[in-house]
Fold this sequence. Notes:
The chain has about 625 residues and is an alpha+beta fold.
Amino acid sequence: MERKLLDLQLTLTFIILGATIFAFMTNRVRADLVAIVSLLAFIITDILTPAEALAGFSNSVVLMIAGLFVVGAGILRTGLAGMAGQLLLKWSGDSELKLFVLLLVIVGSVGAFMSNTGTVALMMPIVVSIAISMKESPSKFLLPLSYVASLSGLMTLIASPPNLIVSQLLVDRGYNKLGFFEVTPIGIVGMIVGIIYLVLVRNILLPNEQNRAQTNAGYKLSPKKIIKQYDLNNRLFKIYVPEDAAIIGMSLAELKLPAKYALCMMKIHRKSQEGINLLPMTYQEMAGPTSVIHATDELYVQGEEQDIRRLALDYGLEMQELVEGEADELVSKHLGIAEVLLTPNSSFTNETVSSLGFREKYNLNIIGINRKGGYKLQDMVSHKLKFGDAILVQGAWDEILLLARETQDVVVVGQPKEHASVAAATGKAGIAGAIMLLMIILMAFEVFPAVISVMIGAVLMILTGCLRNMEDAYSNMNFESIVLVAAMLPMATALEKTGGMVILSNGIIDVLGSYGAYGVLIGIYLLTVVFGQFISNTATAVLFAPIAMNAAIAMDANPTTFMIGVAVAASMAFATPIASPTNALVMTAGGYKFMDFVKVGLPLQVVMFIVMMIAVPFFFPF
């Protein structure tokens, strides 16, 4: 009876496993939802207990992946990774070949310490703008960008989830975990071979049609672009408040600047501390009716120069030189600007700016109006708004985000949440670099368990202001990936309990065992690669790592060799656009077709198979 029950559970396990893989391959349902449904199926069929099924959510690998998303976001937000891209044109000069190689080297270097998806998302707009400036098609650069980002997953332990998954499995089975740089030799070999291949085929296999690239996809109206559009640099003035100025203690409501001087107070700059940042900052207050002027304040005022001088003369203020680009200081950790568009049924239509009570309702100032490309920055009080108008608002980022969420009258252009995060992290690239270096040192020298080192890095990114707050940290976690890993890990437990793992590993040994450990490694590598073209590298690693482990133990071979083989194969996602999120990202932006991935990626798969079947046993002998 017990044997029959076990056979039934084994059959059900393979049915659930097959259905899960099929669902992944069809890609009609989100991968994380598929994984959760599979998890529930194991519980309902009594193959796994609830505790066994939910054990993945407490796994250190899952927590480490979550922490790495936070660290990667800090690197992005501070502009640390972007600095590398900005140096590309400077170093490459007019050489397209030099630019191509430098781009791929930088992508590989950046991708060694953050997710390949984050790397591609960061570099894609830079690559598109560089390609256009060099009169080259972005489609010539974006596919190589995706491929090298995938290969960069082999550069360090934290560069991709499959590395972390196979390392944890080694620990769970009583073997030594992978060191931080243990996979690096394989990664360097893969990177060199990949770059050489892409250089050789770039003018043969890669599409190079200007009209295929959707160059304005993903356009974002950043605060800096808004400042330039509205020409705020030439209409912004800075005034210093001396100790004996007559204006001290007066509120803006008392001063009546718009009525008396046709001026708009944008910001008050005051020495103080801002937030919980560990570094000295300045306090910046949005200028509103209740704002009170203090001695030594710096006032940022918008208007005509003669009106500014009249204000300074009346109250004994000192006009100061505005440094070029200082208008960018209108954007800070707490304060920002954004453009909002009136919707077709907006209640703002045909209302004047003064009748809206915008400042009272939304705690934001209206500082400009854009109507069909004409900018109105003065005497806006009696100006009637029309459908299609864009309003420039200024105030706290939190209030701008609230406006975006809670009103149907306007649509906020761009991504204020992202811009707020970038503004908060401006100037902190060095801090982010130091945190990343500290995390790498802690992991390399195994001062703490790897998950603790990553969590330290993630927390420091928040405390130092590289990320704006905890909400910013959570919003940058890819919960689809996190849930996918956590929900898929117990599948290995189900295969183990029912004996399915032994059957699969023995099947591979029966077919390829006559060729020795090398033949079995080739078989596992090829199976992993094939499945990896249709399901995520994370899910692929979760499925095949335990099978490879059992096969290695059964053949008395080195399990580390087989684990590295699985991690490497899982990163070789080149032949289809659904093989990796990075491929999907560049497909639209580069205007690629499905066959472009087959044409360029399939030969690369063959080349990498030959190279890796030599490199893996060389660096990790059987």
